[in-house]
């Protein structure tokens, strides 16, 4: 399917149920309580529709890029996913926040490696630049770590992925989109593939102008 048949739009209430199903399809290793529901996506529409995106083929939802604005404290960076996303409701959204916190990017397996994820990341960067925010921060899973956790510490694994010695389907992709690793997040999320670890990743807006 040609890439131009995929379109990126801001989130709408009519997509909420399909977005819940997309979560289940994309994250089979996540604990059930970590998955977002239709009610969460409806809340995203109310809070910050301009910064939450869906990828569509026709009316089929095949991708998601969600997030919210926040004043992120890098001196107190350790956090859990469910805490910062307020149980999926994104209630920490601050319209005046300096950073866009990336809650989730997901693409249905039938449409991966077709540039959909790159376009969702580009949509995030575009809203950050349009709103003149400092950049994007997120907790990125490391699903490839499952095969190495008896051999490498999480830090060693991430260092080797950053160096290009190992490939991680999530982290390597994020590095290719211009993100940098700022540290590790312990017990970030209940995900056996990442052994509950995540990386703290940051993309800085090159066009940011301090007020």
Notes on the protein architecture:
The chain is α+β, with helices and mostly antiparallel strands and 211 residues long. It has a 7-stranded mixed β-sheet, with helices on both faces. The protein has one domain: Gcn5-related N-acetyltransferase (GNAT) (Aminopeptidase, 3-Layer(aba) Sandwich). It is built from 6 helices and 7 strands. α4 (116-130) links the parallel β4 and β5. The model has no long low-confidence stretch (mean pLDDT 94).
Average pLDDT, rounded to a whole number, is 94
How many structural units, i.e. domains? 1
Q: Provide the β-strand percentage band.
A: 15-25%
Report low-confidence residues grouped into runs of 5 or more: none
The order of strands across the largest sheet is 1-2-3-4-5-7-6
Q: Within the CATH hierarchy, at the fold level, what is the topology?
A: Aminopeptidase
Number of helical segments with 4 or more residues: 6
Termini separation (Å)?
Answer: 44 Å
Largest beta-sheet characterization: 7 strands, mixed
Give the C-level CATH assignment.
Alpha Beta
Shape: globular
CATH architecture annotation name: 3-Layer(aba) Sandwich
Class based on secondary structure composition and strand pairing: alpha+beta
Total beta-strand segments = 7
**Percentage of helical residues?**
25-40%
| CATH homologous superfamily (4th level) name | Gcn5-related N-acetyltransferase (GNAT)
Q: Mind telling me the C-alpha Rg?
A: 16 Å
């Amino acid at each position: 399917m040609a890439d131009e048949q995929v379109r990126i739009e801001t989130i709408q209430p009519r997509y909420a149920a399909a977005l819940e199903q997309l979560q289940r399809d994309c994250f089979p290793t996540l604990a059930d309580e970590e998955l977002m529901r239709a009610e969460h996506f409806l809340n995203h529409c109310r809070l910050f529709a301009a910064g939450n995106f869906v990828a569509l083929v026709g009316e089929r939802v095949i991708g998601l890029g969600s997030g919210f604005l926040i004043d992120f404290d890098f001196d107190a960076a350790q956090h859990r996913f469910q805490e910062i996303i307020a149980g999926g409701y994104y209630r920490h959204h601050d319209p005046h926040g300096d950073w866009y916190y990336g809650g989730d990017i997901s693409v249905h397996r039938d449409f991966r490696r077709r540039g959909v994820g790159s376009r969702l990341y580009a949509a995030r960067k575009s809203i950050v630049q349009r709103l003149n925010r400092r950049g994007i921060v997120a907790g990125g899973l490391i699903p490839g770590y499952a095969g190495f956790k008896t051999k490498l510490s999480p830090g060693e694994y991430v260092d080797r992925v950053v160096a290009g010695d190992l490939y991680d389907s999530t982290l390597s992709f994020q590095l290719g989109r211009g993100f940098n690793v700022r540290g590790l997040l312990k017990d970030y999320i209940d995900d056996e593939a990442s052994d509950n670890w995540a990386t703290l990743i940051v993309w800085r807006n090159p066009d940011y102008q301090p007020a």
